[in-house]
Amino acid sequence: MAIRHKAYKETLDRGYASEWNDDHHLDPTDEIDYFTTFIEQALSSSWDSAQCSGGGAVGVALDSNHAFFTANSGAGVGDKATVRKMLADAVGNITDPDDLPVLTMANRVTISVGAGTTHEFGLFVSATTPFTANQEGAYFREAAGVLYAVTGTGAAETATNLGSFSGYGVFRIEFTSTDVRFYVDDLTSPVATHTTNLPTGNLTIKLSAIGTAAGSQILRSDFVGLTRLRKH
């Protein structure tokens, strides 16, 4: 979707309606389509928790006098706490790769001491069960204190080891027409760029924690924001 003009103007120069094409469209590159800090409204009004299992619990809770969305897996091995963004108050996907979505999150996770995948957050096919192999989507995974950038098709995945991290960061996932780029804290230089096993299906935002032999795992989120560039 391109903007086409009959005339180009410098900043502060006067423009006239006659200088615009009839098919002129705005390119909403910087438009934020969805943003939440999780504390403005009841979680259940826009997030679904039906994929929780075992001792999993989700809600808004204080940590060090700061309100976070909190997913607490519970102490049982395999217990899951997870939420997914709903579409029009119902379970469903809210974007697709052709929208060129950009997802930005500020998250904190407990660093697990045992082996196994313990946290996932990013864009997933809504119906996919959290923590199953080769999930279709583009997301971050934390396992035993190591962070990964992951893209999957549902049949295979590409995972880039990003090394150990402190447990808190600002995370961004950016789709382009040819790849998926991952950012952590520095939002100008990607830490990973994937061109293989890219998702093609519709996607939604999902945040999840799963219990391990080390006990309960907790994922906290300060905010999530989704921009869709829509250049298709």
Please characterize this protein's 3D structure:
The structure is a single chain. The chain has 232 residues and is mostly beta strands. It has a single domain (29-228), classed as Jelly Rolls (Sandwich), CATH 2.60.120.200. It is 0% helix and 42% strand. It is built from no helices and 15 strands. It has strands spanning 34-36, 47-48, 57-63, 66-72, 80-85, 101-109, 117-124, 137-143, 146-152, 157-164, 168-175, 180-184, 192-194, 204-210, 218-228. The strands form two sheets. Strands 1, 3, 4, 6, 11, 12, 13 and 15 form an eight-stranded antiparallel β-sheet that branches. A seven-stranded antiparallel β-sheet has the order 2-5-14-7-8-9-10, with no helix packed on it. Residues 22-29 have low confidence and may be disordered.
What structural class is derived from the secondary structure elements? mainly beta
The residue ranges in which pLDDT falls below 50 over 5 or more consecutive positions are 22-29
Largest sheet: 8 strands, antiparallel
Amino- and carboxy-terminal Cα gap: 7 Å
Work out the helicity level: under 10%
Mean of residue pLDDT values: 86
- The CATH topology: Jelly Rolls
Give, in order, the helices and strands.
EEEEEEEEEEEEEEE
Shape: globular
Bin the strand percentage: 35-45%
Provide a brief overview of the structure.
By secondary structure, the chain is mostly beta strands.
Provide the fold topology.
Blueprint (H helix, E strand, L loop, with lengths): L33 E3 L10 E2 L8 E7 L2 E7 L7 E6 L15 E9 L7 E8 L12 E7 L2 E7 L4 E8 L3 E8 L4 E5 L7 E3 L9 E7 L7 E11 L4
Antiparallel strand pairs: 1-15, 2-5, 3-4, 4-15, 5-14, 6-11, 6-15, 7-8, 7-14, 8-9, 9-10, 11-12, 12-13
